[in-house]
Amino acid sequence: MLRRLFLALLAVVLALPAGATPIRIKDLVEFDGVRGNDLVGYGLVVGLNGTGDGIRNAPFTEEIMSNILERLGVNVTGEQFRPKNVAAVFVTATLPPFSRAGSQIDITVSAIGDAKSLLGGTLVMTPLNAADGQIYAVAQGTVIAGGASAEGDGASVVQGVPTAGVIPSGARVEREIDFDFSTLTSLRLALRSPDFTTAGRIEAAINNSYGRGVARMIDAGTVLLDIGATRAPSPAHALQRIEAITVEPQRKARVVVDQRSGTIVMGEDVRISRVAVSQGNLTLRIEEEPLVVQPNPFSQGQSVVVPRTNATIQEEPGIGLAEIDEGASLSEVVAGLNALGVSPRDMIDILKSIKAAGALHAEFVVR
Q1: pLDDT tens profile 56-106
Q2: What protein family does this chain belong to (predicted)?
Q3: Among residues 168, 179, 330, 365, which is most buried (max CB within 10 A)?
Q4: Can you give the pTM of this predicted structure?
Q5: What is the rounded distance in angstroms from the CA atom of residue 211 to the CA atom of residue 205?
């Protein structure tokens, strides 16, 4: 199955037309100041069907439950209650840029005690704080757990992760980020993948659209934009036009392999110098077959275990000595190795050896 999938992906790669595909600037950069903010809160999920925290193992659950009840006017000081349908959770979310008070955002709920499942639970009103300690949103709603669990007297089964879930639009924004975007006179464009060639092309594309002097490349990851020189009514109008400009990005030659799954992903600019490759596999097999030796009848001896080991070495057929021409692309090399019947895992070992020999001219990433 893995081999057929690899062949299909390789066929798609080889069928792609040469040359880079124009990409919008909005997909290549991050605009300075236009970013989300992480929020976190500590709350309580109620309504669980006996799958909540054990109060003895999670005393913080009892503490927050007491605080919530006291805020609601229920005095539980000195009372002993150990319900099994509540669970303490962490609530996380990301406040999108330009979020306004009253808008709703998605949240993630994760159990922090020994609760077995959050399925069917309801998150009680939970304030969400940012890094500055201020409350920016309040979360509440029914948890949608991502798994299921069941157990009997002698066995249990768990599917997915029932101790974590999400609440779509489960938090309402109560405070806005104090950021006046309309007063900006300059703005930095931060490239997601820093590259001098790509940054230069972004600078040239913006200047060709607005005129010289609007954009200036600072380094491989930054392009400075002079909003005043664009003569746009506002920075938002300027970025509306700039983010739609297309640029052909330049990427580093890179090969990424995953040894666990045997996946190989390569760029079209990867090149290999002239090199010879020979590959074979050795299989070492060791079998232990201990032999028990019994004493003679009516003797005073004892049974003795005599070790006996069978060791064999088998060489599996691989590829013979093959020569790769100068300047061949990696896709051509992989296609040739695949035609010889080399498995993806053996192909990864061959590529690692070619890289070690200095013939693979690309960044080699192994995961």
Answers
A1: 666 777 777 777 777 777 776 656 666 778 888 999 999 998 888 999 999
A2: Belongs to the FlgI family.
A3: 330
A4: 0.65
A5: 10
Rounded to whole angstroms, the Cα distance separating 16 from 10 reads 10
**Residue ranges of the domains in the chain?**
37-173, 180-247, 254-366
**Cα(337)–Cα(274) distance, rounded to whole angstroms?**
15
Interatomic CA distance for residues 306 and 300, integer angstroms: 19
Q: Is the Cβ–Cβ distance between 318 and 237 less than 8 Å?
A: no
| Spatial separation of the C-alpha atoms in residues 21 and 280, rounded to whole Å | 39
Distance CA 329, CA 57 (A): 60
Token code pair at residue 315 = 């060489």
In residues, how long is the chain? 367
Secondary structure class of 129 (helix, strand, coil): strand
The span from the CA of 195 to the CA of 205, in Å, is 15
pLDDT tens digits along 249-275 = 888 888 888 877 777 777 777 777 776
Q: Count the Cβ atoms, other than its own, within 10 Å of residue 167.
A: 22
Best CA proximity match to 215, nearest among 193, 233, 191: 191
Classify the phi-psi angles of 3: left when phi > 0, otherwise alpha if psi is within -120 to 50, otherwise beta. Answer: alpha
Q: Up-side HSE of residue 333: CA atoms within 13 Å toward CB?
A: 29
Q: How far is Cα 343 from Cα 156, in angstroms, rounded to an integer?
A: 39
